[in-house]
Design brief:
Number of strands: 9
Largest sheet: 5 strands, mixed
Number of domains: 1
Pfam families: Self-incomp_S1
Strand content: 35-45%
Subcellular location: Secreted
Strand order of the largest sheet: 4-1-7-8-9
Radius of gyration: 19 Å
CATH topology: Immunoglobulin-like
CATH architecture: Sandwich
Shape: elongated
Helix content: 10-25%
GO cellular component, one term: extracellular region
Family: Belongs to the plant self-incompatibility (S1) protein family.
Main location: secreted
């Protein structure tokens, strides 16, 4: 009976520390900031307005319009299972492209606190120590 009580108390502590009804983590868990910059223009020239619409399974971050060389950012807490996913649509000049702007399995080790992306006509590039470019989905 005592071991059952210990198990119950341990489970309760884990739930209180790492779980909640809305899936948010406690305030001490690190925050990740994702920044996307419109790089659709040619060097020194203007380019098209970029419309960005990002979502996760739980959150719709709304529609944002970016001029060339302007950026949009949002922040969130990743989950402990590395399954955090934010996906975006990008629209310009009657084109619509899609990309997973933050995929926990792909990105958490490369940009755990800050993920900087450039959005180009042929895909998105993650900046940092290791620059990595990805094609549209």
């Amino acid at each position: 009976m005592r071991s059952l009580q210990k198990l119950y108390v341990t489970f309760l502590i884990i739930v209180l520390l790492f779980g909640s009804s809305n899936g948010k983590l406690p305030p001490f868990w690190p925050i990740t900031v994702v920044t996307m910059t419109n790089c659709l223009g040619n060097k020194g020239k203007s380019g098209p307005l970029l419309t960005v619409h990002c979502k996760s399974k739980e959150d719709d971050l709304g529609v944002h319009k970016l001029a060339v060389d302007k950026n949009y950012h949002f922040k969130f807490q990743t989950n402990i299972w590395r399954s955090t996913l934010f996906f975006c649509s990008f629209k310009w000049n009657k084109q619509v492209k899609r990309f997973d702007i933050f995929d926990g399995l792909r990105d958490i080790d490369e940009c755990h606190y800050q993920c900087n992306w450039t959005i180009k006509a042929d895909g998105a590039c993650r900046l940092g120590e290791k620059i990595a470019c990805f094609p549209w989905k």
